[in-house]
């Protein structure tokens, strides 16, 4: 950008032009001069920019690269409309102490969990676009390795500076070397900035790994030994409104070795590896009593995918109401991403991710988020 040209534009014309740039591009332009920074950081610009982005209502894929020490090495996002990767700032995030894991997304923010040896875990919310973060208040019970999930509660159309969410923490080991597993659960509400104890997680629900949000509830999959093999056993859920844990009554398909529950096109879907020979997708029917198979990965694609698997894979999907159509399969130890388009029933690889940093063993995690440049929580 030529500052001498843009600085001569009428302020109104400049603001209108900048409204149509992707959030990452606006961040880049802010670094060019003090004048551009001030013009694109004002309250009036934020309101106009938010209205424009709301009309677009796009959801991006965020890919996070972390080394085995838990340090951020790269943050990149993929714009499905432009089919392009953007690199995000990571300097402020990489300064967090301890081992950091990205747990989930909530609107425009990420929920991160910090592990500090035998000390209690800490939770953080960060804005990946702006590279800002803050620590949540301590949980009422000190825990290590709890199950953590987050639900994006609302976006107030009249308040571009507010972004409400609830965090659910279930179970965990007592700190300072104790091996006893605590089944208690608690919920954090960003609107009150406080924790509240809730119903304990049932003991047979504990073998779950990751929560996914769907229509205001959190879903996960439990595993058990079936015919001498570790297989998916049940889909469980936590209802935030009632504060109750329960099971989805639909019977699980047989032979599922690895499963993820996601939301796509306002429906609850399940993606799983079946007997290490195929990947299938099921949809929970309207009665919530049956899983209906809706897609199978083509054999050639599965063979290519299987060659890249060196560990578990994770699966995430868009959750924007009425906008979600993609499911992405993330390879934990590879930056490769496989996309399923539910509307077109196609499986395609995203363009190669070029921002791989560092040496040694790395792992990747991915999730969808809404890029909101103007939204932020207070930085600690």
TrEMBL record:
A Pfam family the protein falls into: Beta-prop_KIB1-4
Gene3D superfamilies: Kelch-type beta propeller (2.120.10.80)
Domain KIB1-4 beta-propeller, first and last residues per copy: 98-297
InterPro entries the record matches: Kelch-typ_b-propeller (IPR015915), KIB1-4_b-propeller (IPR005174), SCF_F-box_component (IPR050796)
SUPFAM superfamilies in UniProt: Kelch motif (SSF117281)
Protein name as catalogued: KIB1-4 beta-propeller domain-containing protein
Biological source species: Marchantia polymorpha
